[in-house]
Write a structure and sequence with these properties.
319 residues; mainly alpha; Receptor-associated Protein; 3 domains; 15 helices; elongated
Length: 319
């Protein structure tokens, strides 16, 4: 009885959140120009010309889920989507997550006939968009970092040739594809709207949070405040970025064996269970149909996930 109430409660929560997300999505369509301007601002922070969509959403008080912004949940989701290059409404992504959760919940209930397994299936389905956003974000940031040293060399050459920083960035935009070209294009557009160039590059750091770009931000700010030679600073900065990238590749090579061990530890129990289920089903019959075997299977799955996450945590090197 309690499991049925739990399923009904989850279904009711799904309908409520889906309706709220749909209402947020359908209320207040904005022109394309204001949408493009809003993408040039970081979520959750006030900027000039009142072009921040998140601040207007939070201050209007008319949206159903505006209070969640105080917990920085939807704001963090929006930041991750923008850093991944996904410029969609938070309500659309929230609606997709809720729909996947409901789909996994009812599919697990229909196939597994277990409340906790149904909830686990719903949770697993709901995190698929988040995993996709994270993977796309990491891929985009890696591509940006790979392009950055060559962009710094081009900026240095342009400055040494007598061009201004703005003209050097325009050359970068015309020569480099996404993501580096599009991010610098956004910085140039912000500068044309009246934002100082050091501040525009600092805003780009918020959209592309990588440490190598942080060095460029510091260099531009130092040049703007002190007036030193920016070409010399950027030339030295290019060498530092390349050194950091070589160090990162060395760390990745040295930890390759341990990372492979973690993958084996995480996947070997699943592969062995699947193999025995096909070759000799009687060996795994108890795990799937006996109550004690089901409990053992659940505990084993939790321990396997914990072991995989622990190994992954230990292999993260901060430098």
């Amino acid at each position: 009885m309690s499991s049925d109430l739990l399923i009904v409660g989850a279904a009711a929560a799904f309908v409520l959140v889906a309706f709220a997300a749909f209402w947020m999505r359908s209320s207040g369509r904005r022109p394309v120009s204001s949408t493009v301007m809003a993408r040039m601002a970081r979520p959750g922070e006030a900027v000039e010309a009142n072009i921040n969509r998140t601040d207007r959403l939070r201050s209007s008080g008319k949206e159903f889920l505006a209070r969640l912004y105080q917990l920085h949940m939807l704001q963090k989701l929006e930041e991750n989507m923008w850093q991944a290059g996904i410029y969609v409404r938070v309500a659309d992504m929230l609606l997709l997550i809720v729909m996947l959760f409901a789909t996994g919940l009812f599919a697990g209930r229909l196939l597994l006939h277990d409340t906790w397994m149904s909830l686990a299936a719903g949770f697993g389905a709901s995190v698929i968009p988040l995993v996709y956003i994270r993977m796309r974000k990491n891929k985009r940031l890696k591509a940006f970092v790979a392009q950055l040293p060559y962009a710094l060399d081009m900026i240095k050459s342009s400055l040494e040739a007598g061009h201004t920083l703005l003209r050097a960035l325009q050359v970068i935009v015309s020569e480099f594809p996404d993501p580096l070209g599009s991010e610098f294009r956004t910085a140039i557009e912000q500068s044309r709207l009246g934002l100082p160039m050091p501040r525009a590059i600092e805003e780009m750091l918020k959209r592309v949070p990588v440490d190598d770009l942080r060095l460029l931000v510091v260099a531009v700010r130092v040049q703007a405040e002190v007036g030193s030679s920016l070409a010399v600073i950027i030339g030295r900065l290019s060498e530092i970025v390349r050194t950091r990238q070589r160090l990162q590749q060395q760390i990745k090579a040295l930890t390759a064996q341990s990372r492979m061990s973690g993958m084996v530890v995480g996947l070997l129990p699943i592969l062995m269970l699947a193999a025995f289920s096909v070759i000799q089903p009687s060996y795994t019959h108890t795990l799937f149909y006996d109550p004690m075997g089901i409990k053992i299977l659940k505990v084993g799955a939790v321990l396997d996930i914990m072991g995989f996450l622990a190994i992954r945590r230990m292999l993260k090197v901060k430098y």
